[in-house]
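yo

u said u wanted the structure for the complex thing, so here. seqs first:
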Amino acid sequence: MSTIQQPERARTAPPAPPGTGAGVRALALTEGRRLLRHPAFLGSLLLCVALWVYESVVAGSSGFPVLHDEDRLVQSQLLLIAAGTFLAVHLAAIRPARDGTEGWFLSLVLLPWQRAAALLLAVLPAALLTAVLAGARIGWLAAQPGAAGSPSPAELAAGPAAVLVAGTLAVLLGLITRSVAAGPIALACLAIVTVVGALFPFESWRWWGLIAVEDELHAALPSGLLHRPAGQHLLYLLLLALACATAALLRAGLKAASVRVLLAVSLAGVAVAGVLNARPAPDSLAAARQRALDAPSEGQTCVKEGELTYCAFPEFLDRHKEWARVSEGILRWVPGDARDPRYTVRQHITPVSESSLGQTTAPIDAWAEDDRKAGTSGAVAVGTAWGDGSDLGRDATGGFATAFAARVVTGEPARSGPQDALLCGGRSVLTLWLAGQAAPGTAEALRSRIDRSFGGLIGFGTVTTVETEQSDIDLAFRLLNLPAADVGAKAKAHWAELTAKDTSSAEAARLLGLDVPEQPDGYGKDSMCSPR
Amino acid sequence: MAGIVNDPQVTGMTYGPQHASAEVLNRYAQGSLPPQDRQRLEPHLDTCAPCRAQLAAHTGSRQIDRLWHRLDHALDLPVPGRLERCLLALRVPDHMARVLSATPALRSTWLVGVLLTLLCTALTARLLEPDARSPFTFVALAPLLPALGVAISSSRRFDPAYEIGQAAAPSVFRPVLLRATAVLLSSAVLAALASLILPRLGPAAFGWLLPMGLTTALSLVLMPRCGPVTAPALAGAAWLTALVLTFRSEVLFSAAGQSVLAALLLAAVVALMALRAGFDFQKGIQV
Amino acid sequence: MNPETTTEAAPVPSAAAGEAMVQVTGLTVRYRRTVALDGVTLSLGTGVTGLLGPNGAGKTTLLRALATVLVPSDGSLSVFGRDPLEPRSRQEIRRRLGYLPQAPGFHRHFTAFEFVDYVAILKEHTDRAARHEEVRRVLDAVGLSEVRGKKLKALSGGMRQRVALASALIGDPELLILDEPTVGLDPEQRLRFRELVAELGEGRTVLLSTHQTEDVSALCHRVVVLAAGRVRYDGSARGLGELADGRVWFSPEREPRAVAGWRTGTGLFRNIGAPPPGAQTADATLEDGYLLLNSAAESGMWPEPEAGTRPEGGTR
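structre next:
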């Protein structure tokens, strides 16, 4: 400890009184930097990004995203960052009390409420970073092939707003109690509230939570059929953050009347926004959903490609390229005279049901009626899901391939009722082979469905169902191991025989080039396909 | 002279003309004065120095000493805290209750935290795996909590009196075992409560019980070698590894798997008994 | 009756000459039942003033009141001619004040630089470049430039104390209030610390509370002794030692009449108090005077009833 470096220098009064704003800003910068470098925040950030990377790269389940659903899914992942922010900010807020510097810092120029204000401002960079992440995630998804729909800015902003709420709440909590354990306990309570909200995706009170989760097992709906007051909810979150912030300032000793007024106004705003959000969905929504379910043609756009017509909800129209790849992959082995001159593919939604167990069947008769009116009789149904990343996507892809192949082979549109959906004999083998070879990934989609099924009958499809027997599936997969061109040429040559109703599975397999022994007596006697 | 009793009723009855009589004072000192007379006498004594001096002659010094002694002891007795009172009510011996009440992993914040974590996990199980036969997430997490509790109760970071306790206890094993048992029991009770809200109640919903005992026992077995933080971490890691390895087969939830776990638990307890001398030479363990 | 033992043994020139930075009049601080400060009157000018007193005498309370973090119950207080009770003046005072509290806390995960920088921000040094310059300067001043990148939890207690001192030096304060700054320092560190404080005392007002009478005699031109919330002595350091002149003697046995006494290395007892006739007196130190004053404050009796030496009725 030698000397003061400039003992003779003129007495330097502290820099000219810069006014309280500058001090708060400088402290906010420092606290903000510390927050962004805090292990809890960084850890949650990495976890969130790792989740995305795993989903996209390892599991590969982010293909064919529906952006007006993804904007909402991003929120729940960003809650991780909100949790990290909460912990980090709470630790920063109780730091003076924990380390015993409170008595010292009281003698410094910045007042406790100014320190609280700086801490509140320091949450902003974290929220901003979260917003950037949300934007990057949705941008990445939008760049994926087959992305449909468009994200809602209000939904995307809800994630960063939740980070704001978490940060301001942490400051408030740190000013109310100095206990370190209060942070994790409050966080666990928030987590429980969020999970409970997610357990009831059809209740409107779930909008009182940080995020409102939908029934994510249901295939996507067109954005117009969703009831999500996202803008109001964003307002609710921002007002909640404002209420926490003003309460924290008040608690830290800023007793100005304007702060009290702001707190009262924001609390009132929170209550109003919450009540508005928690109103049940209007009846018109249910009616619109029913209309879109029963008679989709009025809201859809059609596009003609080659000899096929594809009709879809406008947001999903781009998907017709994927569908075309499958349908053309099937039609290439169909002799010209066996083709229907006007095949149509029409997109359908599945019924929204509040009970997860109630499997509802598609209203196929209403669809036939709607198709007749729209002049697209015999249209093949396709759902809103697609892809090879998730079970839902694979089921949809395999299901469409099977449905289209069945339509081509039988020449009939899908029927309602489980018995009528059953395919037997040569038709079944041919249908499955056509579906499996239609496009890269369809065979994989069929196989994944088989892996998840039990029993002798296996149904394919998410919108309409084609059921086949396990023995036919075995034959079809053996055929899929042969070169597609050879089998296809034989299929073309023996088309009429193969699609005849009384051709047995073994005969069909032999016709297609498989070495199958003569069907022993009693084979398939107890099966659903045995002659009635 | 201040405080002379002039009330005719009083003076007329027992106390003589102005002051209390020797007999009254003697009876007062022996504690045989009727209550109503005592109530009259005491205010007078407060203000009358000669009466007090007289009273002293009637009081045996031994009697007073005994009284002081009792008062002294009563004042010194520590007031047991809430947890300690509960334990005493449950007939836990007072020395054990004291050791347990100083266990960090039995503080109310820890218990609340454990309960909330378990509830959150059980609810998440309802959300993520409503149809699964065994609640994987919940069973995976629950055995980690007592291991964490043992780590917190046995490491110096969470106990300000660590050094003193370390030097004072003649045998480290008993208190460590006592605390670990308490942590295990409290975690098991909380986990059983949380299990009630799992999507499916059945034997599989309580599949965490044996693993919980196993992680705790394993933490203790490893503790003399690896230290109070590393040992529970290793035990937790071993449990997670076992889970990952059997993820597809779900064999851990089967009767055979549970039997293996029970056998392992037995082996760990036997090993613990055999290794208990090791605790006294281990520096990292909290007493 | 308790004798009025406030003492002004010798006038202190610099305190009188310099313009009073701090003026305390009849300052009283009451906590619920106890009176921590009882009508303290004091004025401080440039130079190092030592504040001595037993534990619980009210030293920390007085320093906290001067550091504007404590509102007195009664009396008036003026720092730099401003009233700290008025919010705007309080801010102004705090800008020109350096306060090192007793046992200051530290944020363990901050580096030395970060911590001092943090305190500088709390002192409203908002210009980043100038602030960093200032932080480097004060860390240099306390000799910590080598370790400024180290986390505080990795520093020794003495180094942390220096970090705290560096934080107090930010902005080159005109009034420096140091509450027991030498606690936990080894003798060598204390020596360097004294050098530093002595240097700081040139042209500045430094108020230093301590238990170390050596620090006071080495550093302070002026000493204030507090006991039970009252000023018992306010004067030069030499004057405090002179109080014990003729009241320190050696004896072969423990002396019952001494207010304090201990066996020294020579085997003789060194006693402080009223010596018996013919005793072999020794040179008094500042500590002797302080001990004498304390026992007088406790017992209410000055050890020697000789009128000529009894320093009674100082200015209050």
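The radius of gyration of chain B is 32 Å. Confidence is low (pLDDT under 50) at residues 1-17, 283-287 of chain B.
cya
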